[in-house]
Amino acid sequence: MALDKPYLDVPGTIIFDAEQSRKGYWLNQFCMSLMRAENRTRFKADERAYLSEWPMTEEQREAVLARDLNWCMQTGGNIYFLAKIGATDGKSFQQMAGSMTGMTEEAYRDMMVRGGRSVEGNRRVGEHGDAQRPPQRQTPNRNT
Predict the structure, then answer these.
(1) Helix or strand or coil: residue 105?
(2) Are 93 and 86 in contact (CB under 8 A)?
(3) Which has the closest alpha carbon to 91: 17, 28, 34, 12?
(4) pLDDT of 99
(5) Average pLDDT over all residues of the chain
(6) Which tops the pLDDT comparison, 84 or 5?
(7) Which has the higher per-residue pLDDT, 7 or 22?
């Protein structure tokens, strides 16, 4: 029986729940392997070969090779594990977060210093803003 997941309607958000955890298990284990210097060296020497040692899906491998962290998250990656890829590439977490939002590092930093992203258009479906479901068309009352 599938669990009710009312949180799935948060626009632009991937919730790392038990299902995502199972889906991304090997992707996240690969990321954790990058904590060891010898594994980082092997990965950087031949990324495709190193990734082939892990029983990940081909989509997960492609997402890693593309360094598309949003894609990695869609395939089960957890940002705290995925940060190991960024660190291996010499990227800061701020640089990685900026890339995930389509912003430069500086634009992302400035946005966060100003208090973060506006909630307008970023609420749950059913609340206010652009995330709200479209209103139902009202049928005219033909009895009046």
Answers:
(1) helix
(2) yes
(3) 34
(4) 85
(5) 83
(6) 84
(7) 22
Q: For the chain, which residues make up each domain, given as ranges?
A: 15-88
Which whole-number Å values give the CA distances from 124 to 2, 39, 77, 120, in the listed order? Answer: 21, 40, 22, 10
Contacts 24+ apart (CB under 8 A), 116-119: none
Neighbours of 142 (CB within 10 A): 5
Note the CATH architecture for domain 15-88: Orthogonal Bundle (1.10)
Percent of the chain with pLDDT over 70: 78
The per-residue DSSP string of the chain comes to: -PPP-GGGGSTT-----HHHHHHTHHHHHHHHHTTSHHHHHHHHH-HHHHHHTS---HHHHHHHHHT-HHHHHHTT--HHHHHHHHHHTT--HHHHHHHHHT--HHHHHHHHHTTSS-STT-S-TTSSSTTSPPPPPPPP-TT-
Which two tokens mark 19? 């299902």
pTM of the model: 0.75
